[in-house]
Amino acid sequence: MKKNTVGKKISILCADKNISLEELAEGSGLTVAQIELIQNSENIPSLSPLIKIARALGVRLGTFLDDSNELGPVVHRQAETLQPATFSSQLSTSNSHLDFFSLAGSKAGRHMEPFLIDIQPSTVNEPILSSHEGEEFIFVIQGAVKIQYGKETYELQKGDSIYYDSIVDHLVSASTNQPAQIVAVVYTPM
User: Fold this and answer.
1) 178 phi/psi in degrees, rounded to 5
2) Where are the domains of the chain?
3) Which of 49, 58, 4 is nearest to 25 (CA)?
């Protein structure tokens, strides 16, 4: 994903819908500074603020990640090179340890967001959990992953999976000092 693609799409949608940053902030529950950070940063904050912005603008989460408008099936081949969208787990440029590779970016009108996600070990001592409407399914391909979900912590190894309600505060991270890789499918209702 090209630098600032998400920020540009937010700006275009706001202009098309005649919504000011202040109105978007009020509708999404974010601050103007947080939205400006999203618009101007190479990294994308966690899915939570993007989902809030999508709902405030009346669009799907996938609108920010779409590359084209393919109506039929979308096939991704292993040999194809994907461009990552780098998310961080908070509304800042620190803790940017998740690289999301959309597996259906060209599928128009989708309701699920499938991602291949590379997780780098985080150096931040105090994790910032997030929540949003919807559900998530995670399958570990490589390494070990820690899922903080509410007051519980789940350790997942290669081949393990978890399905949870995203409305509960959660954070996905590598559970060791080694990178991990997962497939995640995120569903957010409109």
Assistant:
1) -110, 145
2) 5-64, 85-187
3) 49
CATH second-level architecture of 85-187?
A: Sandwich (2.60)
CATH of domain 5-64: 1.10.260.40
183/160 Cα distance (integer angstroms) = 11
> Using one digit for the tens of pLDDT, what is the confidence trace for 15-65?
888 999 999 999 999 999 888 888 887 766 667 788 889 889 888 777 776
CA distance 130 to 150: 10
Please give the biggest Cα pair distance in the chain. Answer: 47
- Count, residues in the chain: 190
pLDDT digits (tens, 9 = 90+) for 144-156: 999 999 999 999 9
d(CA 183, CA 98): 12
Q: What percent of the chain has pLDDT over 70?
A: 77
Q: Are the beta carbons of 86 and 65 closer than 8 angstroms?
A: no
C-alpha angle 122/176/153, rounded to 5°? 85
- Above 60 in pLDDT, residue 95? no
Phi-psi sector, 65: left (phi>0), alpha (psi -120 to 50), beta: alpha
What does the pLDDT read at residue 147? 93
